[in-house]
Amino acid sequence: MTARRLRWWSWIHKWSSLVCTIFALLLCLTGLPLIFHEELEPNPAIDKVAESGIRASVDTMIAEALAERPGEVVPYLFYDREKPIVKIPTAVSMTSAPDTFFYKVFDVRTGKALSADQPNEGFIYVMLRLHADLFAGIKGTLFLGGMGLLLTVSILSGMVLYGPFARRLRFGEIRKRHSNRLRWLDLHNLLGIITLAWFGIVTLTGVINTLAAPIELMWQSNQLLDMATQNRGQAQGDRKAPVDLVLANVRAAVPGMTVTTLAFPGSPFSTPTHYAAFLTGDAPLTSRILKPALIDAASGEVVAVRDMPWYATALFVSQPLHFGDYGGLPLKIIWAVLDIVTIIILISGLYLWLARWRTRRTAAADMRAASTGFAR
To answer: CA-to-CA distance for 240 and 244, rounded, in angstroms?
Structure first.
């Protein structure tokens, strides 16, 4: 590589890193407790619930949730992936923001309400919002996605620069007899190349995750609209089929899959005349891929079942790679260690820039002083 190209790549690496480092540090720091969100916020009432084939009436659970919150509505049902529980949120309207929901958790076997903390409160919720959107909604999410793209450029340019650097030293060598800056440079480069693959995957999947809202809007305006247009609902007024019947029909129409979410008519993920059910498989991979089903709100009959488009599937498949939550506690620990190493890389990068900036500033000051003395 020529000296000119080397300087060009060095300039790209420096400025792409400087612009995004503070936000990358924020994401790493907030991501660390999120890796262990289940361990940090255990819920004994939910954790002790065991699986069973018995199912209580969901309509009765909904009635109990609404009785506690008079005047509100139920826009969704959320089934847990691992525990036989269902979370029933109530809201002022069918289109209320999710962070305003009040959740009631029920044991699906007995229909009894369980004592559970609200998922939109507490330390983990604050960490999640900072990590996802900086409490700025879609604008914050897309901004962090832009920072992720810059971080990707920084990683790629750092990989290019490592080649010429590696030819001068043995792999893993730290020049301990030299200045602090050189020692930190060697450590920065070593840790960077060791975590390169993981850091790159987590960054790219994080960028993909920031596209979740646009992907959802694209699906709603294309596939959901097409499904609804081809299968117009017959609902009239407030007449709707019992939710128990809707769920039974969905499970019969899509055997071997599990309902994870049921969107009620009028919510953003359904239509005014349809329920929309989202199902997943039982295998590690299919458990992350949603299959939507549209149900006529009046009759409770399943009128359409489709696979999600490729762009939505890419989002669902990338999420486990980002969060490291598909291999239990051992993988979470590995993710946490790599996260801490990444924090060291980011801090050392800032230190190297500051040290170089101070050195140049001092040198410039010395030259000015020397020139002034010479003039005299």
So the answer is: 11
Q: Is residue 26 part of a domain?
A: yes
Does residue 300 lie within any of the structural domains? no
CB within 8 Å of 193: residues ≥ 6 apart: 159, 162, 166
Residues 206 and 131 in one domain: yes
Q: Are strands 274-280 and 85-90 parallel, antiparallel or unpaired?
A: unpaired
Domain range enclosing 15: 3-39+127-210+328-375
C-alpha span between 331 and 325 (Å, rounded): 7
For the chain, the domain total comes to 2
Which pTM was predicted?
0.80
pLDDT digits (tens, 9 = 90+) for 32-88: 999 998 888 766 566 555 555 568 899 999 999 999 999 999 999 999 887 889 999
Q: Token pair for residue 246?
A: 């809707």
b/e map 105-116, b = 16+ CB within 10 Å:
bbbbbebebbeb
Residue 241 lies in a domain: no
Q: What is the amino acid identity at position 163?
A: G
Q: With 0-12 CB in 10 A as exposed, 13-18 as middle and 19+ as buried, what is 168?
A: exposed
* Domain annotation covers residue 186: yes
